[in-house]
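1-deoxy-D-xylulose 5-phosphate reductoisomerase: structure tokens wanted.
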Amino acid sequence: MRLPERISILGSTGSIGCSTLDLLEKAGFGGAIEVLAAGRNVDRLIEQARRWRPALAVTADEGTLPRLREGLAGTGVEAAAGEAALVEAALRPVDWVMSAIVGAAGLPPTWAAAGTGAVIALANKESLVCCGPALMHRAEEHGGRVLPVDSEHSAILQVFEVRNAAQVACVTLTASGGPFRDWSAARIARATPQEAVAHPNWSMGAKISVDSATLMNKGLETIEAAYLFGLRPDQLDVVIHPQSVIHSLVRYADGSSLAQLGPPDMRTPIAVALAWPDRTAWPAPALDLTTCGPLTFEAPDLTRFPALRLAREALAAGGEAPAVLNGANEAAVRAFLDRRIGFSDIAAVVEEVLEGMGHGQSHQGAGNGVLEGVMAADRRARRGAQDVIERRANAA
Ligand code: NAD
Ligand code: MG
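Answer:
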């Protein structure tokens, strides 16, 4: 087993970031951590930096720098803050970068890291949704690679033996269905933030938990899979599988389907990305087939969960549509968590923004112009969403 020697973790204080550090601990990681970076949770960042002694600890929020400096005094760990510092940190040469910031905020540092030739372990699916083809191209052009951390895409990576998309008949992403899987449309419309973040199988950050409840998460993952594996929209399918044991499957042209199974624990897909194509040895929870069943499957209901349909439409439209979908969704989820709009308004806001904005051109190449174009589309989508949110909040 060969693990990378020098690594950075962007979004170290979140659910994926903490799982990554826990896995490194349990796998006996003996290498060095270059960067630990986070948003606002400075106390946890200090705690992590004191334990792991990275060369640099960064917070995105400049107001927290004095506290970070004070917390790291005497450790020799350098402290920095702000968005530019985050991008500079991501440019530091390492073998492996965990990209686990939530939302489009993770795109600039992930883009920077993709230009260094490092392997990018990508949990931050919003980056790929916003500019997938360019990000993949950029990583490869610089001698690196994007490896998925999302459990479904990790599954596909593992069963994707033939890297010829033409031999793939269909890739099926499994979805737990979220906490509202069997709720009526009327009950879903009244769902509270507390109910939406209570995911049945996975413990995750608030934003992805809401995305799982609307099924937007599976929509974002459909786009993510298209870009990661070079698949057409008609080669991608979603099935609801409430037990989250089969993480995804690939059906080949000859009728053979390969699936990947595992307990719902993100440390396993992180371990896959850490040593790929080798395997990371760690005391992993094992799947027990005699106790995990029965396994059930059903088709997603696009009437109760329109976000999945919207994401598929944005993928088919191409251009800036996926970035607009993502930006509008982030703004709408924030407004829902702040109790300014209802749960069903999330997809309605996204739909209205997509309809009103056109789809723009797709940005060519892998230079920094692409990043600027995508970030501008993201800002436009958020502004458009704010207008719709105001209107809906005032009408309520
Ligand atoms: P989280 O909210 O628990 O953590 C987010 C991390 O990003 C934190 O470290 C936070 O400090 C940091 N952050 C937030 N805003 C920032 C900003 N503006 N600048 C810099 N850092 C910022 O989220 P999570 O559940 O760990 O998810 C992280 C990413 O991984 C998301 O893109 C999510 O979709 C993806 N993902 C998560 C899971 C999971 O099980 N949690 C599974 C698959 C994919
Ligand atoms: Mg997933």
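DSSP finds 17 helices and eleven strands in the chain. The mean pLDDT is 95.

Cheers.
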